[in-house]
Design a protein that fits this description.
2 domains; 14 strands; 23% helix; two-stranded antiparallel ribbon; alpha/beta; Spore Coat Polysaccharide Biosynthesis Protein SpsA, Chain A
Length: 252
């Protein structure tokens, strides 16, 4: 599933007239680039959720025959549901069968999805989250078994913790620069790519509009949610217009 329903408020003025999903990078839209990225890993059955200028996204998919993929539309025209609400609305497509991939349309990356899938199926957590050690203002916090234990916003100082998985810390050279209960946890920046077991759907008790970050923090105390960091890989969040030039240098 590619999440493409956002309002793109950081991407103005483009998003005054267009959805961010159709913003071009070297002549290809963000959506097309991610459809083709997933095809390299054999993923051709897709769901795309839509809200902001939904008609433009649907028209682009139809005009290009899904760029070679089978694409179903999850229509959020009435209300944008954020990442968690949008995924829950699509449960009818994703709730049966194997693990599925979820990603943000404005992320461009060369992350090896085969390696991520191998890690996921080897450890069999409820979800595997692609992360890295890049600088960010918001971090997931993991113990040394790569299990999710919490979240931190370094700008506001806000933290949300699930401490039972961090109760037996071991020595580490890469720890969060903090004091108190979260000091032993390892901060990693989320890359906007998830591998998720469909067993998550009965556990998603929130309704309406909500974030997957909150879902993971709700479940971290009772379910294994792991981070996957294979080392350096190209990744850019094309969230602002000035990021397009950087994206074009990274992804010809």
């Amino acid at each position: 599933m590619i999440l493409a329903a956002g309002l793109g408020t950081r991407f103005k003025p483009w998003t005054d007239q267009h959805p961010k999903a159709l913003a071009p990078v070297n002549g290809k839209s963000l959506l097309q680039r991610n459809v083709e990225y997933l095809q390299r890993y054999g993923i051709r059955d897709l769901i795309v959720n839509v809200h902001h200028f939904a008609d433009q996204i649907i028209a682009a998919i139809r005009a290009n025959n899904g760029w070679g993929s089978e694409i179903s539309i999850s229509d959020e025209s009435d209300e944008v549901l954020e990442t968690g609400g949008g995924l829950k609305k699509a449960a009818g497509w994703l709730g049966k069968g194997p693990a599925f991939l979820l990603m943000n349309v404005d992320i461009l990356t060369d992350l090896d999805l085969f390696a991520m899938a191998n890690d996921h199926f080897r450890h069999q957590p409820l979800a595997t989250l692609a992360v890295s050690e890049r600088v960010s203002s918001r971090y997931f916090l993991f113990n040394e078994d790569q299990e999710l234990c919490g979240w931190r916003n370094t700008k506001t100082g806000e933290e949300k913790l699930s401490l039972h998985r961090a109760s037996v810390p071991r020595a580490s050279a890469n720890r969060a620069p903090a004091t108190g209960a979260s000091a032993t946890l390892i901060p990693k920046a989320f890359s906007g790519i998830h591998l998720i077991d469909p067993a998550i759907f009965p556990l998603m008790h929130r309704q309406g509009k909500f974030s997957m970050v909150d879902v993971y923090l709700d479940l971290a105390s009772s379910q294994r949610i792991r981070g996957f960091d294979p080392g350096p890989y190209k990744l850019i969040d094309v969230g602002k217009p000035e990021a397009v030039a950087v994206a074009e240098s990274l992804f010809p």
